[in-house]
Amino acid sequence: MSGKDSGKAKTRVVSRSRRAGLRSRWPVLELAGNASKDLKVKRITPCHLQLAIRGDEELDSLIKATSADGGVTPHIHKSLIGKKGQQKTV
């Protein structure tokens, strides 16, 4: 049995990000997918990418560019956002 398989075990190449324990290679794409899933849409658009980047503090400080067709990130004042299960009385 001399040849290619001479008894050596195959070793799989492990990336640095996998060794560091990161979940995925492209966290922007994962966050954009979550944004599109929340809006019940099957395709990721530039708007979803913009929401993902601006929603994450680390990515927002890293990426300072404006994306084409990204739209405007909605800003809702904290006092207007109620907690879950709490109704606002007028």
UniProtKB/TrEMBL annotation:
Any one of the GO CC terms: nucleosome
InterPro entries, alphabetized: Histone-fold (IPR009072), Histone_H2A (IPR002119), Histone_H2A_C (IPR032454)
GO MF annotations, alphabetized: DNA binding; protein heterodimerization activity; structural constituent of chromatin
The protein's name: Histone H2A
Keyword Ubl conjugation belongs to the record: yes
Subunit structure: The nucleosome is a histone octamer containing two molecules each of H2A, H2B, H3 and H4 assembled in one H3-H4 heterotetramer and two H2A-H2B heterodimers. The octamer wraps approximately 147 bp of DNA.
Location relative to the cell: Chromosome; Nucleus
Keywords: Chromosome, DNA-binding, Nucleosome core, Nucleus, Ubl conjugation
Histone H2A C-terminal domain ranges (all copies): 57-88
Native source organism of the sequence: Nyctereutes procyonoides (Raccoon dog)
Family note: Belongs to the histone H2A family.
